[in-house]
Amino acid sequence: MDALKYDPQICVQCETCDCLMRCQYMDFELAEAKAEKEKILAGQASKVLSDCVTCYACEEYCPADNHPFYQIVDRQEEQGILPVPIPITKQQLRMMQARGTITPAAVNAPVINMCFFPMLTGCVRGPLYDNASLIVGSDIFCNIMWLHFGKNSVIRERLPKMIDNIWNFYLKDNGVDELVCFHDECYGTYTRLAPAFGMKVPFKSIHLFEYLSARLDHLKDQIKPIGAKVAYQRPCSNRLIPETQHWVDDIFHKIGVDRVERRYDRENALCCGQVFRAQQRDELADDVQQRNLDDMQEAGATYCVFNCPACLFTLGDAVAERGIFPILMSDLCQLALE
Question: Is residue 89 part of a domain?
Fold first, then answer.
């Protein structure tokens, strides 16, 4: 298995313990946080391992970029602490495995990676994606979801094959060395998670928002400002790649929408709650979703903008019931071009 690039001495010397002190789902005094961190470092039982909701946020909070969340997941698996019940985990392991049906295909840049979401391929259309190629399927699934399941071993086993499939079946022989990732999950996997696990990625990943921002510049004469107030539902995977967040504001400015000021946004964003449901923490899921939805509504948002499909599927109906229109970022950009 690939070793995690994690330096325990960085955690030993850390004075602030931001990974735990800034957690929105566990409360610690500093001395307690340090004591729990010492237990984790020593491979001992810690309530962090059992209480962690796997929101990824400590990856962003760590000032040393030392991958505390990946280490927590490693420890969970070592100690048999599975956040999601075993029957659900086994079901998902079967459902999300590669089918082995991939075949070589001719593609040209830009190549848009839809991961394992064929139901969203209709989003890739019109001048925003002019002459783009699209790839999708189980054999290129990024597998980052196993962080939620305490199963880093599955990532180590399956992800290298997915990387090889993308490169060898689509990009290499077509002279393409860049991949536009439609979801934060894939971009975070190839630019942050894979390197942290010592996996080499032979292609360059482009975040969808970087791509959209550049396309909007190219199409600026066709943009009709939307003139709406929007809330952005930041996905957990974006915690791995906070450097991409500026593109959200760039895109909103270019298409003429206002990002409402609210409590649960940016570094203080709340999860959509779906993972908590899978973990059978329904009360927590209800509470988090209620606070998140109230926050959007009180801020006056008329659109809720998503990038993660799971977040959209989880919150879409609830958002709509509040009179707020749920929409993917890509489709919001399309509205400005219609």
Answer: no
- Mean of pLDDT values over 157-172: 98
Name, in order, each residue with C-beta under 8 angstroms of 29's C-beta and a sequence gap of 6 or more: none
State residue 4's pLDDT score: 94
pLDDT in tens, 303-314: 999 999 999 999
Contact 208, 183 (CB under 8 A): yes
80: left (phi over 0), alpha (psi -120 to 50) or beta: left
Mean pLDDT, residues 176-182? 98
Residue 102 carries which side chain, given as an amino acid letter? Answer: I
Name the nearest CA neighbour of 128 among 322, 295, 335: 335
For residue 50, the one-letter residue type is S
147 neighbors 212 (Cβ within 8 angstroms): no
Find, among 114, 93, 55, 81, the residue nearest to 238 by Cα. 55
Shared domain for 256 and 333, answered yes or no, is: yes
The parent domain of residue 43 ranges over: 8-78
Nearest CA to 249 among 265, 264, 237?
265
- What pLDDT does residue 90 have? 97
